[in-house]
Amino acid sequence: MTINTGFDARLVYNADEFGLFFRQLPDHTLRLREEEKQASGFKQCKKRITGLVTCNSDGTHKPKLLLIGHAQRPRCFRQGVQLPVHYMANSSAWMTAALFASWLKLFVDEVKAYKRLIGVEVNKPVRALDGD
Q1: What is the DSSP secondary-structure string of 7-72?
Q2: Closest among 70, 28, 68 to 47, alpha carbons compared
Q3: pLDDT single digits (tens) 64-122
Q4: Would you give the DSSP letter of residue 75?
Q5: What gap in Å lies between CA 13 and CA 59, rounded to an integer?
Q6: Coil, strand, or helix at residue 77?
Q7: Which of 25, 57, 108, 128 sits most deeply, having the most CB atoms within 10 A of its CB?
Q8: For the chain, percent of residues with pLDDT exceeding 90
Q9: CA distance 54 to 63
Q10: Cβ(61)–Cβ(55) under 8 Å?
Q11: Model pTM?
């Protein structure tokens, strides 16, 4: 018995979180061993963003990407630029329970819209797997 028996593959989702250090320099380069010593006092930049990617199991629905950054209102968004992502802020740019709960509400709304699009009953409860 497979674990997804009785579920519609279009309604089974997976989410994965990633961190991106967007200003960090590489640790290794293609230099000779004599040239590998770094300058003293050099410290890597720790600026990061966190992303959450979600997709259903057959790849037909890809909800908006969630990005978590440091700034409440980044400069790049001040000119009225609208990106096809959800943006949230946290001082450490890490996922927290509060941010996840906020994102989950947005995700449920996107899944409901997708269910309407494919003709599945929106409020139909999820079936539990049988233990056989």
Answers
A1: S-GGG-EEEEEEEE-TTPPPS--S--GGG-PPPTT-------EEEEEEEETTSS--PPEEEEES-S
A2: 70
A3: 999 999 888 877 777 777 778 899 998 888 899 999 999 999 999 999 999 999 888 87
A4: G
A5: 9
A6: helix
A7: 57
A8: 30
A9: 6
A10: yes
A11: 0.73
